[in-house]
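Annex B. Sample input.
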Amino acid sequence: MNDLGKITYEDKRHFFNRFTVHHIVINPKVEGYPPLFLICRDRYGHSPCEYAVGTTFQTLNRLLMRHAAKEDRINVAAALGDALSDPCHRGIIRMLAVAGKAMTLEKVAAETTVCRFCPEPESGGTPLYFFRLSEVSAT
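Annex B, continued. Sample output.
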């Protein structure tokens, strides 16, 4: 599967009109990074791809209120509440477990900036990229 962030890193900006969210990663205490990451899978051209969208709780709430089905909003809100009640305030929400399917947010007008995670010096692995959500407009 292709990393969409790596493919588009040279442009530094990318626009989305749809997100297919498979997981939501919560970690509000990591300095310099957004507190939430939407882990998405979709198609880029003819190839399947995977990408992470970094956002805030407020922006996720706006996305859910405008673009998600009522049942999905309720399920995600309950799962977020459970994760945040944990003393560490982190967790992973798996949409398959919460809603029985991936959550698709359609007709989204989202502008993002492509960012690169700072890898651990000893990891020596491939750098990871994410899309920092900078603006969401109503469509």
